[in-house]
Amino acid sequence: MNTSLSWIKMYVPDLDVTAQEYSDAMTMSGTKVEGYQRLDADLDKIVVGQIEKIEKHPDADKLIVCQVNVGTETIQIVTGAPNVKEGDKVPIVLDGGRVAGGHDGKMTPGGIPIKKGKLRGIESNGMMCSIEELGSSQELYPEAPEYGIYIFQEDAVVGESAVKALGLDDVIFEYEITSNRVDCTSVIGIAREAAATFEKAFKPPVVKATGNQEAAGDYIQVSVEDENLCSRYCARIVKNVKIGPSPKWMQRCLAANGIRPINNLVDITNYVMEEYGQPMHAYDLDTIEERKIVVRRAKQGEKFVTLDGQARTMDEDVLMICDGKKPVGIAGIMGGENSMITDQVKTVLFEAACFDGANIRKSSKRIGLRTDASAKFEKGLDPNNAQAAIDRACQLMEELGAGEVVGGMVDAYAQKREPARVKFEPEKINALLGTDISSEEMLGYLRRVELEYDEASGEIVAPTFRQDIQCMADVAEEVARFYGYDKISTTLPTGEATTGRISFQQYIEQIARNVAEYSGFSQGMCYSFESPKVFDKLLLPSDCPKRKAIQIQNPLGEDFSIMRTVSVNGMLTSLATNYNRRNKNVGLYELGNVYLPKELPLKELPDERMLFTLGMYGKGDFYTMKGVIEEFFEKVGMRKKPAYEPSTLHPYLHPGRQAIVTYEGKEIAFLGEVHPAVAESYGIGERAYLAVVDIPTVLEYANFDYKYQGVAKYPAVTRDISMVVPKEVLAGQIEAVIEQRGGKILEDYNLFDLYEGKQIRKGFKSMAYSVTLRAKDRTLEEKDVAAVMKKMLHGLESLGIELRS
Amino acid sequence: MNMKEKLQELREEAVKRIQNSDGLDQLNEVRVAYLGKKGHLTAVSKSMKDVAPEDRPVFGRLVNDTRAHIEEFLEEAKERMERALREKQLEEEVIDVTLPAQKLETGHRHPNTIALEEVQRIFIGMGYEVVEGPEVEYDAYNFTKLNIPEDHPAKDEQDTFYITKEILLRTQTSSVQARVMEQRKPPIRVIAPGRVFRSDEVDATHSPSFHQIEGLVVDKNITFADLKGTLEEFAKQLFGPETRTKFRPHHFPFTEPSAEVDVSCFKCKGSGCRFCKGSGWIEILGCGMVHPHVLEMCGVDAKKYSGFAFGVGLERIALLKYEIDDMRLLYENDVRFLKQF
Question: What is the pTM of this model?
Fold first, then answer.
């Protein structure tokens, strides 16, 4: 919503503030000014001048030399303008002044300074201006020539400000109007707020009774078939219509709001729409068959040509305005070509109606046609405003001599909307605001915006244009905004104390972040939605359950059309971005949800599982990744040893280099090297590794209930086991034997050598473990050690392992 | 030569050798040569048996004195030599402290998380519990229970991603408000951070997925002044103690009265700069008193309790605080970006 300052001042004549003051105060009282533009910001020293004499330039065919009276003196100006003649009054920018742009309509921020100089040897002391040079356009100033100098009407006063004469000494404010304040999508509504904000008198237009002795009802009948979708339909008639231009003052008002003046009739409907926020429509009564208006739902598939010449198809939820035989307009959206006003119109039917906002919004969406009118109706208008607007339009028709208004109004208004009443409870208002405002003071604020107090019932009566006033809190807001939000004190909540904390899961996630970061991984964030194509990219088989993803009905495109069921695509894409940008040694992690539907289509909310996903390329390998997950498990108190099953379950991982991780027999994570084909298709040119930890499962085992075990008092014994191991025997199997056979006195073990190659025969590998044994209660004797080692070695031999020395 | 003289001689000899010793090894040789099992002094003391019994105590004392004397000299020499050695070592071990550090290469936290942790820290300090709610949500929690009925224009304004007629991607963390009020009894003080979704094309200032932090307080006698005080404290802790806040009337369907909050620009301190577009103020959040309809719909007795709620855009804070000029950077995961935090 935009308004010019001058239009607001028409209803708040005592308003005397700068644009900045207006902007600040209105914003603080709830009518947010997004910004303002001074139309004359780049215009300086421009006056109305009259051309007294024109002579040819002695040395240039296309130039003329003019003597121009600028009020205080007569100056000489050389110009190439083709459209001026002696006696014309034109805008003159004097030496040292500024214009806003070129005559091609291109604006120069800060303006273009104009200085006196010589044109082909002849002195020129200023410049005549086109409307474009003054920062506007021929669209908004239809009387301006298409190409050439703007020429004033006879009554312009020589020597006075041309900016003023053109109405360019104005400021345009742009507002953000919230959805609850439909009344403020009108100049009157904003003027009412301005008057209340600055405590000035509000003087809305006085609409007098208009019309001749005839009755509109003799010209037109109205029947509304669907009262839910059309709560009111007002119709009035103007006959002997004379189409012509509207007066300059009206054109200026419209121009300042960016509306192109067309003719008196159109301009009046536009003017009233801006002024009252009520869209109006004018029909040529001679095109209305049977002199009847029927408001009904369209028939399914009904075709209709709107006044923009487009054929459109309706459905049963679209409300149509029809005459006795045919539709003549889509209610609240656009009129029909068949009833369009032409310059030959004799009798006009004015319509001001109130249509259901939600229906208009949906219809306009379905039809694909959004107009200024539908944008207003969508918000849900006040039916009582319709009459005010139609009467105002008729009054203007009469005042401007645009036609003869027929008396009376045809009004289909089944259920009159009454003002809302809210109990006035000053103590509750103070309790909600934390203020101590007297009820008298409160009522004073409320009265400013026409919220009257009914002493008899103790109620606040809200005019019907204030549909937002429904309960005490609404009244409290009215009090607060005029009392001043800034004047309300600042306190902290009192009452029973509460404890601040994060949840257990958030704590676990915090540890995940710490471990990942200390291990060199940086945190990434990926989108929750992706393309269904990622499943193919990840080589998931067609029957893979992960392909069962939640579809978004109205996605931003295929790339954002499903809720992800796997986290690895985001990670691989991020790694690829880094690889592509030549970043070396990249490690990333993400803590984010996947969305697993229980059934499709979705009947209940999906399982949102938080996954801790790690990805890397460059430094490190499978075992680096393994180390990070183990470190994480340890830091969340999972002290048991996780088990690693070689796996081929994840097709996007290397079939020989992936593992499922289980903890106490429960699957908790997986990791592996990215399948070379997948790495290639993502554009990662190095070996890359992924690990995915299921946080909900971690929560089942995470535990910070540590118990002190004592520090060892007795010495440990270390033994090395050196082996030649068949290739297919896994370290995990060896370690299982060590653990099982080592029993209570096994303290620790670790692999310190692994070798495959020339010195070992084919099909075998050399491995060496160092085993630490210690008893809690005594110094181990050689025989204890020997017995355990013997058991261990036997066990290892049974795996087909040869022991060396 | 009597024993006394002999001991005297031994003593002088030993002292001389000690003084001439070059290094701990030679010093040790002297020790062995005099005090060792087969050393000179030991040999002398073995000749005790040749001394007249009445002279033995005197002799014994003399031997002990000599031993003590030599030991003292040895000790002193040892200390001196060790000190010299250490000094030499320290001299030789001078390093170039300006050579590059060898750092453990750690990763970096996402700016969103850093900002979130800061916000959480502030509110936890004020007694708020951090709670979460589902990202795929029922229409009821995202809209209906927040006073946004079917056909409300706000539903269109927010450009919601729908899954089914009843299930959608939440457009605001306010959805958690309704869940918390249904599940808990006042006093309630929670913040609910999380991901939200709106149908905005990706560009420098928009993303179809971003994060919000919702705050909710419900208790007896909660006032708009409490809301102002709480958010003023929050702004001061987040942006610095000199930060000023401005509450402007606004409208949200689920709060009444509602406000938008600006903070004085922390870059120019309010004098106006490119950052705050010359206004000196930066809009950071929306808030208000929980609408009585919302309280009632969520099972809270609006006659007994009142509350306030606020919603902050996490990315907005991160972008402002860290002066990030393009929102897309937050989801690209380029390590050159992440490393700056």
Answer: 0.87
